[in-house]
Design goal:
The complex is a heterodimer. By secondary structure, chain A is mostly helical. Chain A has 16 helices and 4 strands. Chain A has one domain. In chain A, the strands form 2 sheets. Chain A has a two-stranded antiparallel sheet with strand order 1-2. In chain A, strands 3-4 form a two-stranded antiparallel ribbon. In chain A, helix 3 runs antiparallel to helix 4. The two termini of chain A are about 15 Å apart. The N terminus of chain A is likely disordered. Chain B has a domain of about 260 residues: DD-peptidase/beta-lactamase superfamily (Beta-lactamase). In chain B, a hairpin with a 3-residue loop joins strand 9 and strand 10. In chain B, helix 11 packs across helix 13, helix 11 packs antiparallel against helix 17 and helix 12 packs across helix 17. Chain B starts with a helix and ends with a helix. Classes of the chains: A mainly alpha, B alpha+beta. Chains A and B meet through helix 5, helix 10, helix 13, helix 14 and helix 15 of A and helix 1, helix 2 and helix 3 of B.
Chain lengths: ~475, ~475
Amino acid sequence: MSVVTNTTTIGAIEAPSRRNTELALLIFAVAIPVFAYANVGLAMTGKLPSGMLGYGLGLGLMAGVAHLVVRKFAKYADPLLLPLATLLNGLGLVLIWRLDQSPRLIQRAKSAWGKFSPDAPHQLLFTAVGVALFIGVLLLLKDHRILQRYTYISMAVALFLLVLPMFFPAVNGAKIWISIPGLGTIQPGEFAKIIIAIFFSGYLMVKRDALALASRRFMGLYLPRGRDLGPILVIWAMSILILVFETDLGTSLLFFGLFVVMLYVATERTSWIVFGLLMSAVGAVGVATFESHVQQRVKAWMDPFACYKTDGACQQIGDAIMSFGSGGTLGTGLGQGNSDLIGFAANADFILSTVGEELGLAGMMALLLIYGLIVERGVRTALAARDPFGKLLAIGLSGAFALQVFVVAGGVMGLIPLTGMTMPFLAQGGSSVIANWALIGILIRISDTARRPAPAPAPSPDAEMTQVVRP
Amino acid sequence: MNKPLRRIAIFCGLLVLSLMIRDNWLQYVRADELNASKYNRRVQIERFAHERGNIITADGQTITGSTETSGTDFKYKRVWKDGTMWSPVTGYASQIFDASQLEKIEDSILSGTDNRLFFDRTLSMFTGEKKQGGNVVTTLNSAAQKAAFQGLGDKKGAVAAINPQTGAILALASTPSYDPSVFAGSTNKDSSNYKALLDDKNQPMLNRALRQTYPPGSTFKVVTTAAALENGLYSGIDDPTRSPVPYILPDTAHQPLNNEGNIPCENATLKVALQWSCNTVFGKISADLGNEKMKAEAEKFGFNKQIFNPVRTDASIYPKDNRPQNAMAGIGQASNRATPLQMAMVAAAVANDGKLMKPYMVDQLQAPNVDVLSKTQPEQMSQPMSAANAQKLQKMMEYVVTDGTGKNGQIPGVTVGGKTGTAQHGVDNNGNPYAWFISYAKTGDGSPVAVAVVIEGSDTTRDDIAGGALAAPIARNVMKAVLDSKK
């Protein structure tokens, strides 16, 4: 009998929920941006900024509520995701506030639009909405597998969101925004990113066997049957269409990359990667031959200083690169750099330049590591998830996150041609911050399910029959 | 599904890693280059973020300053005292049109960003002292500069004066000149002033003392004489040269080389030939020595290479050419070209007993607290001739001033050696000739000054244009200014 007691005892020890770890990390994630806020104020005006208390309380409150909700409704969730997202969002707010103080940008806004309105208060509001959505996801989505039911609805919604910006005027050369009078602009691509990952997961989970097994072997590669090629061709065509009609390289790359990654995970066939790379190469080169917007970006990427004086695209990327160079190893210190020389989208697409210049190489490394950690926690969640839908969704979301970080940061640093996307959590932009909070919410939900201890097996009446009888 | 998941994890890791490598490339490897990029506005901002250090003459006069402005980007603006006179030395430093010459070369000291000022910067961070740039102390003599600039007046030309014993540049004037203050700011007026200066057909922004090469004319005969003595073509200055008048250029049927006017050049001695500036004699010497030897001697004087003092000086040219052209180059014509500084170096080498010192114009770099960061040590550049031959040349050049074409260079009570020149140029020599004078003054303890003056002729001066008449008085005043400041 004693052995039986033992098994029940083991079952009674709860798996660690790591909620206190999360709380401790959250304290740092709130304290660091508050110090950064004070730092900016001291550097720029010589005194502590008046909004510091409100800012610290606001960020702390949001983080605290989010933590309590996680503690209650997703007890076994990954303990790193929430603190990392909070830290990035808090730093983003500080950077946006810092750029709001820049006399150059204020002057520029005044001469361009006649008035200047600071972005930080808006961003704080968007953050609140984002955290609310995060909480909403945790409250309403008790199990991520519910999303599986909405596979084809997701597809329709994602398509709708992707196509929508085509009917709105282009902003700065890319059609990725829709404007709603009175509400401002929305970037539907940010939301579509999550919804399409849900669709891919649901679709691939059903079709993975057909896609993986029904194939012929040719030159060491498993070639899929013609009809199984259908979906990838459709997605490919769609991303090309996005590229052509919305002239947005980033969104196009993100969706196609996301699909290839998920297809590969679902089928375990390397051939899909080969196909994916070939198709994106063909698509990109094909479009680049006639799309002047893309050509311009490629030219600016090749050598921004060759066309610096004549081409706005070259000037943007050249300015960003010089901003990084001027930061050097340790940076100028918050509030003391000249990253505001990048007049265009300094606090949105080019916010990384401010990090690079004012926090230096050291700050950039830390920031990239934070992004890397979020992706790592996402992949870990995928590995730990017990159901294929959860695995696919988690890798899809973290893969999309990683691709987006790479496309934006790579573009700003001149590693790849620049595209019009924003750095998750850091950059100014309501859609981005709200959508990414939802993304973190879903990942937390999946990780909670994955790390939750399996329900104790029902006591088996045969248990005693199999016990080892010690002499 | 875990195997592809792990691979995707590695892939994501590689994405982040590539971003990190790229960032290191930008912020560490290329940081300095990007920081100094000509497109980087931060260079300009930093240049005027603090009170800029000053450029100071050897006699302690501050020739630059800074004033506070109200712009967003630039806190200070550069100002110059007597900018028109000093701009060939200082160059300019504009808020929107970059900087040039000393203002540019010593920018890191002047704007306080130089690594040698690291300690001062760190210290002022703690003491809260106002950040400030360091000073550049030049070798220029303000009296000599003034004499040169006023001597040139509204004529087009240039003056370069150096100390033969050290190579220190004492005066560097160029006219017509410009005042860098008129485009130092960033207003529309500054832009239009700058554009007007660039469009001016008189090229006021051209530094004629360093960046314009002229045919040196007869002043180059000093180099030809040195070549003749060094190569042993003639051993004494009173040896007859066995030269005919006219001299028929080599490799030509009967292309004669004549002299200006009726002067005693036939079979003249070196001394007499230099006294009257005989084309026939020096053309023949150049031809007899050949292109290679002439070129080698000219290069020992500094021809055919750029000189950095530290401001770049254009290379003077002694050409590689055929025999008749080489004969003409020997009297400072044909494709022979020299900057005023180069010709001052020729006079200096003779005055300094054959040793040519490397010209320089920055004596010291000072930290804001006037600690000396670095001091230029005079160094020998070459030895174009032996001391004995240099002394022979001195005798001849002094004879030119006492009894020859250079009488206008005389200073009572001082030994002066010189050489005049009137250089033809243009197609068929129809351009207004250039008037040259190179000279040095000598006192008991060596020569303190050598000077070269060139004046571009205009139609009104065509008749009396001659080195002796136009250029020599300016050279005399510059030498006198240097001698007076020694007392």
